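Re: weekly structure request thread

Next one in the queue (309 aa):
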Amino acid sequence: MSRGHWITSFASRPQAGCQQAPSPLASVRWEVGMARLGERLGLREPRSVLQTDSLDGPTRNRIWNVIEMVREHIREHIDWQIDESILQAIWMVHYEERLDELGHSSKAVARMKDDVVSGDWLAVLEVVESFVNQLDHPKTRTIRTQALDLFNLAFVRYLVGFRFVGTELVSVTDKEEIEQIAGALEATSGTTSRTHLDRALALLADKREPIYAKVISEAVGAVESEVRLLTGKNDLADGLKQLEAKGYAIHPALRGAWTKLYGYTSDAGGIRHALIRDDEVDEALAVYFLVSCSAFINLLRKVSASDRT
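Done, posted below.
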């Protein structure tokens, strides 16, 4: 479908001999990239402004609808007690309220809805992120993956300047950049490199107190860890030379570029020595380093895999 894209996620398959009501999302078509009739006829202006520090009404409605439908699917098709536990966790962890003051879970739902419908843009995204992170139950992890997709589809449809990468919301909207970061996260699962990447993402996602210099530090630390894993060398430049000595096909120009980039972050005035003030590093530079480091990790993984075969 060139003009649009739909998802009919969460459709439950009833077990043999069982009758189940259809999932609330089973018949919902979530369009992305499909212009409405008025836009196609030139009678209505299409969306063109990226939403970064505000969210309009239709965007908030879509976000809330995703939350509600995910919750309804959990209650109707998985276990209503899991939904109760999610709401209790959000009440205690996200809102930092006392559990004995919650009473009925509808109080937490009302608080969430008020933030999504009427709160500032940051409150909306923080509710979404908290909701997604509380879906980390063995029975809801598949649903969480689908929920992440649905939120990202909403962000694309309504030109929201954020995307989920893993379970973190970050100010990265370019599809290829997201794929590089997501690929590196998957490839480095269970390693120190993954720990550095997770920290970089968490720092980048912190819009209240962003520390972009540390994002760069963690991103470069992920590359260091990856090279150390492959060579045992603590220094990136030495590690890259060791990789070449072992027969890994790294183009000299690429090795030179990465050595210089590493030098920028590691010399006497470098970020890793904390002598560059954070106000000298903006979000764009932090994203550039995170994407670049992720891409290099992906390259190292591919090179090492091809050389082993």
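Confidence is low (pLDDT under 50) at residues 1-21. Residues 193-308 form one domain.
Next request, please.
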